[in-house]
Amino acid sequence: MIDLRLLREDPDRVRASQRARGEDVDLVDALLSADERRRASGSRFDELRNEQKVLGKQVAKAQGEEKAALLQRTKELAAAVKAADAEQTEAKEEADRLLRALANLIDPAAPVGGEEDFVTLEEIGTPRDFAAEGFEPKDHVELGQILGAIDTERGAKVAGARSYYLTGVGALLELALVNMAMAQATEAGFIPMITPALVRPAAMDGTGFLGQASENVYHLPEEDRYLVGTSEVPLAAYHMDEIIDADKLPLRYAGYSSCFRREAGTYGKDTRGIIRVHQFEKVEMFVYTTPEDAEAEHRRLLQWEKDFLTALELPYRVIDVASGDLGASAARKFDIEAWIPTQGKYREVTSTSNTTEYQARRLSIRLREEGNKVRPLATLNGTLVAVPRVIVAILENHQQADGSVVVPEALRPFLGGRTVLEPVK
Known about the structure:
The chain is 42% helix and 21% strand. The protein has 13 helices and 18 strands. The protein has an eight-stranded mixed beta sheet with strand order 1-11-12-13-16-10-9-4. Strands 5-7-6 form a three-stranded antiparallel beta sheet. The protein has a three-stranded mixed beta sheet with strand order 8-14-15, with no helix packed on it. Strand 6 and strand 7 (225-227) form a beta hairpin. Helix 2 (11-21) crosses helix 3 (26-61), helix 3 (26-61) runs antiparallel to helix 4 and helix 6 (140-147) crosses helix 13 (387-397). It is elongated, with a radius of gyration of 27 Å. The N and C termini lie far apart (56 Å).
């Protein structure tokens, strides 16, 4: 959540951020009102409690009618203290609820607008001209069948729509991509992690996924646990309720996990193949750092993502995501979109977000500096590889006329030295 002091001092900035996101601006005034009630009722409670203490001393010394009057006042005060305490509790709960509903403040450098108002920062690589090469590219579903790598029909039979099997070289390709990503991350100083796929509500809410993103979260009500849609959630909650010494920052983790998403609201979109599925594997980078270094760290995460996709010899572009498409936790987000030949457009394969102090405040994670000063730190996340979409990009961009697929050179050591994925007989 945001700093409540900032809201009090500069509410117009918060209103502008909400407006740019397309979120409820009235939430700001409702929160200010609840905060004022909380502070006023708190002051009232303290005043009454002090009077109660003074009166207690007077009662002990008084006698006769004076004592009777003081005792009557004591009863009245007790009722007033109880009422003030209840009012304070109610106002605090309301203020906390509204504060947690408020999205992070947008970075002033982020473009303003909706999903299509992103800014393209750069394009890397050149899409192949298949017509010039004399053949029409096959999509990843057909290539997956030719290679014996993807089975969506049996996936749907066993698990329903948006489900799939990776078979043969498809399964090996997933393992190779995960191992390649982990090798790059550990070389860059990240601590590898295999994270829980089930988390408590505090972890899911703390990272901001029970707000506008809640419709895509799987909930197990009997256990009151959530299936994570990204290892960002358990990685962010790893240091929940902790204070980290500043000299240990940045802390960088690379988490491997299965990810689960309901894909609510996407009826009719990407129903063919494995671009939009309910379960997939991912390697996620996550960083704890100082608020002052967060912007520079965001650029580092972006560069690591670019390095990975460049090594896979994929054409891609980097976009600066517009305010209305950021998600509640992100102050700024960069997406990388790989070129998908059969769709004739770029599709998102990775993203990286600077969530500033927003998640750390919700999860009560702080840093300790010299002089024992304690304050919130900053968190950032970045996807190194979301496996199915990268498989789609590799198959479609590196295919040959006979249905075989050339393995990018950087991936070959992780695929047992294979240089080409051959059609199965």
